[in-house]
Amino acid sequence: MTSKATTPRYTVPGITVKDAATVIAELQERLHSYNDLHLTLKHVHWNVVGPHFIAVHEMIDPQVDSVRDMADDVAERLAALGGVAQGTPGALVAARKWEDYSVGRADAIAHLGALDLVYTGIVEDLRASIKTVGEIDPATEDLLIGQLRDLEQFQWFVRAHLETAGGTLTTADATTEAEAAKKA
């Protein structure tokens, strides 16, 4: 669905304004999710405790930097298509379709259990966006595919801490962040 905020007056050559509006709407969702994710990752970075503190604390910062770069790339692509990147906190909170991260000060492994669910939501939504934009704009599709690769790698880093010797995730059947944190 497009709105006045996502419908450009012009766009890049070879894409109709209507199709650009669809891509812009998908990119705006990604921008919100990346802005939220980088703040969530910093929250984890600041509130992680326990014997795995330093490993997780230091693992998170490069993810923060990368996700911030993803947000910037998405916002710039959105603008190139003739859209307006809505990057304010109010726009993010008003538009987001997920709850705020629910774990405060906690053990490193508990945070990683919760963070795994966060990454799952981001990756699933990103895959849906790739499918939508891939039918319209290969340049945007390529951008998002590269970001997907990085996000899946970050989730792998997180999951490595949650995996048993038998190859299962300790949080495999968790449906909420709090439940995942407890099971981790």
UniProtKB/TrEMBL annotation:
Superkingdom in the source lineage: Bacteria
Domain Ferritin/DPS span(s) in chain numbering: 24-164
Pfam families membership: Ferritin (PF00210)
Coiled-coil annotated residue ranges, if any: none
InterPro entries: DPS_DNA-bd, DPS_DNA-bd_CS, Ferritin-like, Ferritin-like_SF, Ferritin_DPS_dom
Recorded family membership: Belongs to the Dps family.
Name of protein: DNA starvation/stationary phase protection protein
Species this protein is from: Streptomyces kunmingensis
Lineage: Bacteria, Bacillati, Actinomycetota, Actinomycetes, Kitasatosporales
